[in-house]
Design goal:
By secondary structure, the protein is α/β, with parallel strands linked by helices. The chain is built from 6 helices and 7 strands; from the N terminus they run H-E-E-E-H-H-E-E-H-E-H-E-H. A 7-stranded mixed sheet has the order 1-2-7-6-3-5-4, with helices on both faces. The structure holds ligand AR6.
């Protein structure tokens, strides 16, 4: 059963605006905490969005470029003071001109630079660090893009399953109790389809 959009709205404060919200059919919530949406992550009115950054944390292409463009130049100014970030780790900043209060900059693995096991460990660690920072900063809602699946070439289906399994593990460990909503925000229809196909392995519908 698909939950009402008003629930999604109440918990994550995504604007109920046809321009921003995906259609009813393209939303699904699992275990009352997980949502899968297809959207531009920079449009979300939410406590925190995750960026798929690189080690320098100074912007780039893909979702990183979109986030920096939408946040304005104050974001890169704050990022300059962070001294970069290792792959598998994440650092938090303000959201500036974004509708999101905070940005969590996670650095995903480059698929072809690492063996599959190292890459997997680092990708999972991005999701875990993102969730840990969200909890530490009392964020109630957080949205993740499909980290590493663009420029960094991580295989999409594997990325989806690794992300879902790590988020599930984090919640099973009781560490995400302060979080009300975790959103997987896909930009490409391909990833949206992959998430829909795989989510029930990790979050059976309730
Ligand atoms: N909202 C949500 N997702 C998006 C958006 C958006 N506005 N734009 C793109 N995506 P990528 P990576 C999706 O390449 O693979 C950058 O240059 C995109 O379709 O952004 O982790 C950084 O500076 C894909 O599904 O990130 C790094 O150098 C996903 O975001 C490097 O790329 C991730 O694709 C990071 O590569």
């Amino acid at each position: 059963q698909i939950p009402t959009l008003s629930l999604l709205y109440k918990l994550s404060r995504i604007p109920l605006d046809a321009d921003h919200l995906p259609s009813h059919e393209s939303n699904a919530t699992f275990n009352d905490k997980i949502s899968i949406i297809k959207a531009d992550i920079t449009s979300l009115v939410i406590d925190g969005i995750v960026n798929a950054a690189n080690e320098a944390l100074l912007g780039g292409g893909g979702v990183d470029g979109a986030i920096h463009r939408a946040a304005g130049p104050d974001l890169v100014d704050e990022c300059r003071g962070l001294d970069g970030c290792d792959a598998g780790d994440a650092k938090i900043t303000d959201g500036y001109d974004l509708p999101s209060k905070k940005v969590i900059h996670a650095v995903g693995p480059r698929w072809y630079a690492l063996g599959p096991e190292d890459a997997q460990a680092k990708l999972k660690s991005c999701y875990r660090r993102g969730l840990e920072l969200a909890v530490e900063h009392q964020l109630k809602s957080i949205a993740f893009p499909a980290i590493s699946t663009g420029v960094f070439s991580y295989p999409n289906v594997k990325a989806c399953n690794d992300a879902l399994s790590e988020v599930r593990k984090f919640l099973d460990e009781g560490k995400g109790d302060g979080l009300q909503r975790i959103i997987f925000c896909n930009f490409l229809q391909k990833d949206q389809d992959i998430y829909y196909k795989n989510v029930s392995k990790h979050f059976p519908p309730v």
